């Protein structure tokens, strides 16, 4: 059994799609209990339209909502009765095992560290979304808001990312690579040059060296290590180039009558292919290294992504990811 | 009249496509004189297959070739008779006005600084490729090999990029933005935070603030300022995501008979659309701020891209870009 607190008020399609996703999750899996956090009256009203096992969903009232554009540190400090703060406190007080939100990334990152707190030994909790590749998915770690990382942070990211990909995504000996501007060890900025030999020396991860950004979409590594500024650029450019190209393809297909007829014929097959390259369908991005699980789902998540993010929490808990992270960091610090 | 030294030996399709591109360039424009630098016998043999005005192409012998994988500093130092070193010396000695190469990026960057040399006042010469967007092209500055830049470097990049886009690409008041992980001034890493107010204070550029990577493909800015590590990641991911998506679209279209028929119908229109999003067709990336013009064209350039890169040099010279850069930096340093 897992208890997942879900932010009913966060995201572009809140509360409707969030609530629908929560209902779908409990219907799909009897081991999940959802604590829907938000303005009680609104949430109850929307919930009343669904049929589901009443034992699997509880509503927890939170009167306030943190907007995406609010400065995060301030929002977390001032809005004590917001769905994000209330949801995170449920995790902190062990009333919930995980918290899922499609709301303000900044507030989730700050709240995760300030309210839920770090696992002992974790220097910096990374946000690690899955990104689609030609062959499957890769974990991009870190895409959070803590920029200007140190080499030791990146080494921890590599360890935590490996554990996640191995035990949540079932990838045997995940290949770990560091984002660089060339394949050779001597290439890169100061951070990469310092981190490279440290990763090479880690016996507990399968480090395959540098990865150039061009190789990321080909699926050349399972865990892609970088500091948050670079990770953020990669994640957002992925979305931007993808969206632009797809819109170009659509425009191209509407160019003349001949193409329009062709478009009708290719559409079904093409839709499936492009869907497999849509980052949002891979559930949420975990904020790793916290005393409890915090998952950020894409701001434009609909019911399906919310459901996937909730179900993902179950695997995370069953596999004891946090325990594995603790062990791994303890072993590493013993060696030092 | 402009004299362009062209590296006949550099690039995936050298010397055939390079020579073909040089011939096309002189045929298209009578004001261009090409100095084809490379192994004389090989070059002359390939050239003999073309008809062109013999006054417009001269062959300059260079016995050595720098391979892409050679460590650049060493290659420039040791291979004094390589096409890159010989070509750059032609620019240094004012026997050529520009040098175009599809060869080793590293060697071109090193050679540009060491042999051709920087304009007085230029702290670091940036490599600035044009990237395709939904609405046209943007200049991505810097994508070179000099990582760990300082704020003052980025300010110079913004100035040089503005001059280039205004006078070579004919964009009135080019919009300059700095790559960041959020739109607000207080966001970013230490470098961006320090650079932001400096750019804001520049009266001679049209600074529009931060740009998130997601907005780059939409054409939200004309000059995209970043340090080389980030620029490199952006450039290569652009290529990588584009290539992967296009291959996905192709596979999707071949999924079944229905789609195959549709594909035949949409193909012509789609080809044009996707071509407009192909980075390689926009000629070469100038290495700005040098005593002479050095242009790096894509390693996989064919005749058409080589021709475009050569013709681009003419606009660069006619517009007196280097003189404008000198004036702009002199004015800026007076103010300080």
Helix content of chain A: 40-55%
Query: How would you describe the oligomerization state of the chains in this entry?
Result: homodimer
Span between termini of chain A: 38 Å
Largest interface: A-B, 61 and 61 residues
Task: Please state the overall shape of chain A, judged from the principal axes of the Cα atoms.
Answer: globular
Largest sheet of chain A: 6 strands, mixed
H and E string of chain A: EHEHEHHEHEEHEHEEHHEEHH
Determine the mean pLDDT of chain A. 92
Question: Could you characterize what this model shows?
Answer:
The structure is a homodimer of 336-residue chains. By secondary structure, chain A is of the alpha/beta class. The first copy, chain A, is built from eleven helices and eleven strands. Chain A has helices at 16-28, 40-47, 72-78, 83-92, 105-116, 151-167, 190-200, 228-253, 257-275, 303-318, 321-335; strands at 2-7, 32-38, 57-61, 98-101, 130-132, 137-141, 175-179, 206-211, 223-225, 285-287, 293-296. In chain A, strands 3-2-1-4-11-10 form a six-stranded mixed sheet, with helices on both faces. In chain A, α7 (190-200) links the parallel β7 and β8. The longest helix of chain A is centred in the C-terminal third of the chain and has 26 residues, at 228-253. The first copy, chain A, is globular, with a radius of gyration of 21 Å. The two termini of chain A are 38 Å apart. The model of chain A has no long low-confidence stretch (mean pLDDT 92). Chains A and B meet through α8 and α9 of A and α8 and α9 of B.
């Amino acid at each position: 059994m897992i208890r997942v607190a879900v932010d009913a008020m966060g995201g572009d399609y809140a509360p409707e799609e969030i609530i629908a996703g929560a209902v779908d999750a409990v219907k799909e899996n009897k081991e999940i209990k959802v604590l829907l956090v938000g303005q009680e009256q609104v949430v109850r009203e929307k919930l009343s339209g669904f049929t589901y096992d009443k034992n699997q969903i509880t509503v927890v009232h939170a009167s306030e909502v943190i907007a995406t554009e609010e400065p995060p540190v301030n929002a977390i400090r001032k809005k004590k009765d917001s769905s994000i703060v209330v949801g995170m406190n449920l995790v902190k007080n062990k009333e919930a095992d995980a918290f899922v939100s499609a709301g303000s990334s900044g507030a989730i990152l700050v709240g995760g560290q300030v309210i839920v707190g770090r696992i002992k030994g974790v220097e910096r909790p990374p946000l690690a979304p899955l990104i689609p590749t030609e062959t499957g998915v890769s974990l991009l770690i870190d895409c959070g808001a803590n920029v200007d990382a140190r080499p030791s942070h990146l080494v921890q990211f590599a360890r935590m990312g490996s554990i996640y990909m191995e035990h949540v995504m079932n990838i045997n000996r995940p290949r770990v690579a560091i984002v660089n501007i060339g394949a050779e060890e001597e290439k890169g900025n100061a951070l990469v040059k310092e981190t490279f030999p440290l990763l090479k020396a880690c016996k507990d991860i399968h480090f395959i060296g540098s990865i150039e950004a061009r190789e990321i979409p080909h699926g050349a590594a399972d865990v892609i290590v970088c500091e948050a500024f670079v990770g953020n650029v990669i994640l957002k450019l992925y979305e931007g180039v993808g969206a632009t190209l797809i819109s170009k393809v659509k425009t191209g297909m509407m160019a003349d009558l001949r193409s329009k007829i062709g478009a009708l014929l290719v559409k079904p097959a093409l839709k499936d292919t492009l869907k497999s390259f849509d980052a949002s369908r891979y559930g949420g991005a975990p904020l790793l290294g916290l005393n409890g699980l915090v998952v950020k789902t894409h701001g434009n998540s609909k019911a399906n992504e919310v459901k996937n993010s909730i179900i993902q929490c179950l695997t995370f808990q069953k596999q004891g990811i946090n325990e594995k992270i603790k062990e791994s960091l303890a072993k590493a610090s013993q060696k030092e």
